[in-house]
Amino acid sequence: MNDDARFMRRALALAKRGRGLVSPNPMVGCVLVKNGRVVGEGWHRNFGGPHAEPMALAKAGRAARGATAFVNLEPCCFFGKTAACTEALKKAGVSRVVFGVRDPNPRVAGKGKAALRRAGVAVEEGLLAQPCEALNRAFFTWIRKGRPYVILKAAASLDGRIQTVSGQSKWITSPAARAMSRKMRSEVDAILVGRGTVVADDPRLTGTGRRHPLRIVLDSRQNTPRGAKLLTQPGISLIVSSKAPNGRLPATAAVEHLRVPLLGRRVDLRKALAAIAKRGVTSLLVEGGSEIHTAFLEAGLVDEVRLFLAPSLLGGEAARSFFEGKGFASLAKAPRLEATSMRRVGPDFLLTGRVA
Ligand code: AOF
Ligand code: ZN
Predict the structure, then answer these.
(1) Best mutation site among 23, 41, 51 for ligand 1 pocket (most ligand atoms within 8 Å of CB)
(2) CATH of 147-355, one of 3.40.630.30, 3.40.50.720, 1.10.760.10, 3.40.430.10
C-alpha cells in the first residue's frame, strides 16, 4: 500500500470511532501529514460537535502549514453547527487535501472541492473511494433518497423458516448469534417490527450500548398491547399507524406516535420511511415478522439483508419463512444479493449482502 492509501486508511479508522455517536451526521476522520509524518489527527466525535478537520488542525498547530490533509469525506464549505472546514484548512495553510468521496449533502456536493481549489489548495478526490462510500452508506442513502438505509435482519433455519410448524421460534439461532444481533441494534438509529411480532414475541428490542436506538412498531390499526415490554425500555418507542392514538396507548415522553396514511391495507411504507428519516433516522434495522419483511422486499425498500442461518431443517408447508407474499414468477425479477459474505457465528452462519 502506498503512503497516501495508508494515511487514508488511518482517517477511516479514526472516523469509525464516531460510530453510533454522530448520526445523522457522517463518520469523518482526518489525518494531517507533513514530510511523511503525521502531525495531527481528528475525528467527528459527536453530533453537533466539531468536525474532523478542525480537530486535526488544532492538534497540529503551526505544523499544519504546508501539510496534506487526508479525509474520508469531502470537507464541508458552509457554516452549520460549526464553521466551514474548507475555511479552516485554508487558514491553517494546508497545501493539499486528499478526500475519499464527495459529500452528497446539497450544501457541499462538490462545492467544498471547488472552494479549496479556488484558494490554491491542491485537491485529489477518490482515494479508497469504495471503503469511504461503504463507511457512510447510511448517511448517503439518507441524503440521496430521503429515507433511512434499510437492513432486513432475520434468523432462519437452512430451509429459510423462522418458525416451526407449531409456531415455535425461540430460539432458532444460538446465543452467539443473538448477541451479535443485539450489537447490530446498537449500531443503527432505529429498529422496526410489526405489531404481530410485538404480540407473538414481546421483544425488548434493546441493544448493547448506552445509546438506545428508536424502537418503531408498524401498527396500521393502533392495536399495540399496552403492556408490551418494548414500551418500557430506556429510550423512545414510536408507534406508526394510520389511526390517531387513542386513550389506550396515549402519547407520553417515552411513547410517541406517527400517523401515516394507508396504502391498500397497510401503512404506506414509503411515506412512513420519509417521515422517520425527517426525525434523523439514517439507518433502520427491520426485524420482522414475515409480513413486514415481505412488504419491505416487495416494495423494493431493502438495501441490505443480514440473515442468521441455523444448521437446522424445520420443514412444514405451514411453517413461516421470512419472505412470503405472492413471490416472483421469474428469476430475473426476484431480488438478488450482491457483495455477499458469509461467516460463522458460533454454530450458525451469518450471511449478508446488498440488494442489487
Ligand atoms: C466535514 N467534516 O467531520 C463532518 C462533515 O451541522 P454541522 O455543521 O455539523 O454539519 C453537518 C454536515 O456536515 C453533514 O450533513 C455533512 O454534510 C457534513 N459533515 N463534514 O467536513 C466532518 N461530520
Ligand atoms: Zn466540516
Answers:
(1) 51
(2) 3.40.430.10
Domains in the chain: boundaries: 3-135, 147-355
Contact assessment for residue 260 and residue 271, using Cβ atoms and an 8 Å cutoff:
yes
CA angle 180, 186, 190 (to 5 degrees): 120
Please name the residue ranges forming H helices in the chain.
3-16, 52-60, 85-92, 111-118, 129-135, 137-145, 175-186, 195-201, 269-278, 290-298
Atom index in ligand 1 nearest the CA of residue 107 equals: 17
Model confidence pTM above 0.90: yes
Separation of CA 84 from chain center: 25
> What does pLDDT average to in each consecutive run of 10 residues of the chain (356 residues)?
91 95 96 97 96 97 97 94 93 97 96 96 97 97 97 97 93 96 94 96 90 94 94 96 92 95 94 98 96 96 98 96 94 95 98 97
pLDDT of residue 209: 78
On whether the CB atoms of residues 279 and 134 are closer than 8 A, the answer is no
Cell triple for 105: 449533502
The residue behind cell 410517541 is 256
Say what the pLDDT of residue 142 is.
97
- Collapsed DSSP state (helix, strand, coil) of residue 61: helix
Asked if 180 contacts 340 with a C-beta cutoff of 8 angstroms, the reply is no
Residue having the nearest C-alpha atom to atom 20 of ligand 1: 76
Cα angle for residues 262, 289, 164 (degrees, 5° grid):
145
Sequence-distant (≥ 6) Cβ neighbours of residue 118 within 8 angstroms? none
105 lines ligand 1 (CB under 6 A): yes
The answer to whether the beta carbons of residues 153 and 286 sit under 8 Å apart is: yes
- Superfamily of 3-135 according to CATH: Cytidine Deaminase, domain 2 (3.40.140.10)
197 backbone dihedrals φ, ψ, rounded to 5°: -70, -35
Ligand 1 pocket, mutate which of 14, 23, 25 (most atoms under 8 A from CB): 25
Q: How far is the CA of 77 from the centre of ligand 2 (A)?
A: 7
Atom of ligand 1 nearest to the CA of 108: 17
